[in-house]
Specification:
Elements (H helix, E strand, L loop, with lengths): L2 H39 L18 E4 L4 H18 L3 E5 L8 E7 L9 H11 L5 H12 L8 E6 L5 H14 L3 E7 L2 H12 L9 H16 L11 E5 L4 H9 L8 E5 L12 H8 L13 E5 L6 E6 L5 E4 L1 H19 L5 E5 L5 H10 L4 E3 L4 H8 L4 E5 L5 E5 L1 H11 L6 H16 L7 H15 L3 H5 L7 E6 L8 E3 L4 E4 L3 H10 L5 E6 L6 E6 L3 H18 L14
Parallel strand pairs: 2-4, 4-5, 6-7, 6-8, 11-12, 11-13
Antiparallel strand pairs: 1-3, 2-3, 8-9, 9-10, 13-14, 15-19, 16-17, 18-19
Bound molecules: 2-acetamido-2-deoxy-6-O-phosphono-alpha-D-glucopyranose (16G) and magnesium ion.
The site of 2-acetamido-2-deoxy-6-O-phosphono-alpha-D-glucopyranose has 14 residues, from loops.
């Protein structure tokens, strides 16, 4: 190295170290100010003694009356997350399908994904820190992750329609203000709309315009284009009834409607004008009760759609000509979507692998149909959207749905690129180009950030219309096996542990062996148990070739759980045979 170069190198090193010192002093000074403010701010959001909050499968969820301190702290954490990611993040205030008095909060990462799993622990720690310990709890997170506190932060905020939403939003905003964070409060949105907006923003508009109106426009444009060549239909009727769970999905469907012109006649019921949120209506009610919400007037064959309270979950149902209720759940939706996308991919001539991700709750018939008839690979993930989402990333086109109606489709960057190029490649024959063009429109119609009831509903309508199918035709793809879901109270639900995407219990000792023996007694029997992530219970699922046997198997497995995993209260009683 020449003398001159050496001189410059010395100057450079000393400048760098001076800059590091200045930065450390600045960061430390700024940090202690902020931490002191955070502790001061907690006085207005005191944490009650004796409650332990947990960032569960879908964020914090509890009685809204005790959540104020949690929201304040999540404001603090959201700002830190934004600084750590050097991007805008989001916070959604909702308790989804829970009753109206509950509420909750979950954080959304920059591309609209769920909060990174490693941060769930930080969220739980901060939510449980005593008021006076908030500063040190924040400090631990900052140190562990080497977060530069002097960086700016920006957070998008939205809530569902719960009356507790506005004061809880205020608590969250207080946390953000203490951190000096900028924010945008979007007011009432569906959960997937907020996920969508944060992705639009961070992708600098590449994913769409960062406005609610932009969301409707993007979906509606794709939907209308996909219908342009729709000839006369014999079976498909462009008429649906939507059960909005008396929640945000109803309000937002009304806002979408004018964008759809007259392509679809939508009647919204349970729109919040009289009934209570999620009370005797919504996707959870319909799926669990296996019946339409009371008061809905339904003609045989009429397609009905149920959203949950924050519209990230959807199921379809109809009454057949004999008035018998039929549910078209997440499994039926994923089969429909995977079948159609698979056809488009092969018609386009593109080499893309399509896979479906389910959970252990998926009906056995759906898995068999996908694997044996459709020849589509199926992966099983643990319960909870984040687990399915993660697995779906392994495919070029990953379709994921929980049976309860949470789900969407993910296209890898490479798949997206190939599809776009093919749609504009004049050297391809028109059939291939047309298929690729339809795939680009399907990508626009699908909210890839997270399951979205409104988007999924439009995707299903598009496919049914293209296929000229009535609800019955869709339902006939395969016949669901009868199943039963039960819950058992135990002293400590963590006594039950599982592996193999929850299909096998590893604790307590002897439980899985007992389940195996019971399952072996019955035709097409299948059963598994898992601790709930949202309730203090162990869930038992059983499936068999008749309802009576599924009920019996679920009962027998419940007794084993009760006996081996420390059941509390009365031992489960056999199902009545009347
Ligand atoms: C949460 C999950 C849902 C899952 C359910 C299971 C999200 C957004 N929501 O609602 O996917 O099906 O929990 O509840 O991930 P459980 O653990 O009580 O059975
Ligand atoms: Mg929900």
């Amino acid at each position: 190295m020449s003398k001159v170069m050496r001189y410059f190198r010395v100057v450079q090193v000393s400048l760098c170290s001076t800059w590091r010192q200045v930065r450390t002093v600045y960061r430390t000074g700024k940090m202690s100010d902020i931490l002191a403010e955070a502790v001061k701010g907690a006085a207005a959001h005191p944490r009650p003694e004796g409650i332990n909050f947990t960032y569960g499968t879908a964020g914090f969820r509890d009685k809204s009356t005790i959540l104020d301190p949690v929201l304040y702290r999540m404001g603090l954490l959201a700002a830190l997350r934004s600084k750590a990611k050097k991007a805008t993040v989001a916070a959604m205030i909702t308790a989804s399908h829970n009753p109206e008095p509950d509420n909750g909060v979950k954080l959304v990462d920059p591309m609209g994904e769920m909060l990174e799993a490693a941060w769930e622990k930080h969220a739980t720690d901060l939510a449980n820190a005593k008021d006076e310990d908030i500063g040190s709890a924040l400090q631990r997170i900052i140190d562990a992750l080497d977060i530069d506190i002097s960086l700016p932060s920006d957070v998008f905020v939205a809530r569902d329609t719960r009356p507790s939403g506005p004061p809880l939003t205020q608590a969250l905003l207080d946390g953000l203000k203490v951190m000096g964070s900028t924010f945008t409060d979007f007011g009432i949105l569906t959960t997937p709309q907020l996920h969508y907006l944060v992705r639009c923003h961070n992708s600098r508009g590449a994913y769409g315009e960062t406005t609610e109106e932009g969301y409707y426009k993007k979906l509606a444009q794709a939907f209308l284009k996909l219908r342009e060549d729709a000839g006369t239909k014999k079976k498909y009727q462009p008429v649906v009834i939507i059960d909005g769970a008396n929640g945000v999905g109803a309000l937002k469907t009304r806002k979408l409607q004018p964008h759809l012109n007259d392509s679809l006649k939508i009647t919204v019921c349970n729109d919040g004008s009289s009934g209570k949120l999620n009370e005797k209506c919504g996707a959870d009610f319909v799926k669990v009760q296996q019946k339409p919400p009371p008061g809905m007037e339904i003609q045989p064959g009429q397609r009905c759609v149920s959203f949950d309270g924050d519209a990230d979950r959807v199921v379809f149902f109809y009454l057949n000509k004999d008035g018998v209720f039929n549910l078209l759940d997440g499994d039926k939706i994923s089969t429909l979507i995977a079948g159609y996308l698979g056809e488009l991919v092969s018609a386009s001539g593109l080499q893309l692998n399509i896979g479906v991700v389910q959970t252990a709750y998926a009906n056995g018939s759906s898995t068999r149909y996908l694997e044996d008839v459709m020849k589509v690979p199926v992966s099983c993930a643990k319960t909870g959207v984040k687990h399915l989402h993660h697995k779906a990333l392994e495919f070029d086109v990953g379709v994921y749905f929980e049976a309860n109606g949470h789900g969407t489709v993910l296209f890898s960057d490479q798949a997206e690129q190939k599809i776009k190029v093919a749609s504009q490649d004049d050297s391809l024959d028109s059939g291939k180009r047309e298929a690729a063009t339809r795939l680009t429109l399907m990508m626009d119609l699908i909210n890839q950030t997270v399951g979205d009831a409104i988007s999924d509903f439009l995707v299903v309508e598009t496919i049914l219309s293209t296929r000229d199918w009535a609800a019955d035709d869709w339902n006939m793809q395969y016949k669901d096996l009868p199943s039963r879901l039960l819950k058992i109270k135990v002293k400590d639900r963590t006594a039950v542990q599982t592996t193999d995407a929850e299909r096998c219990a590893t604790a307590p000792a002897g439980l899985q062996e007992a389940i195996n023996k019971l399952v072996a007694k019955y035709q097409q029997g299948r059963s598994f148990v898992r601790p709930s992530g949202t309730e203090d219970v162990v869930r038992v699922f059983a499936e068999a070739d008749t309802q009576a046997i599924a009920d019996m198997l679920a009962h027998e497995v419940s007794v084993q759980v009760y006996q081996l995993a420390g059941g509390v209260g009365e031992q489960p009683q056999p199902p009545s045979t009347s």
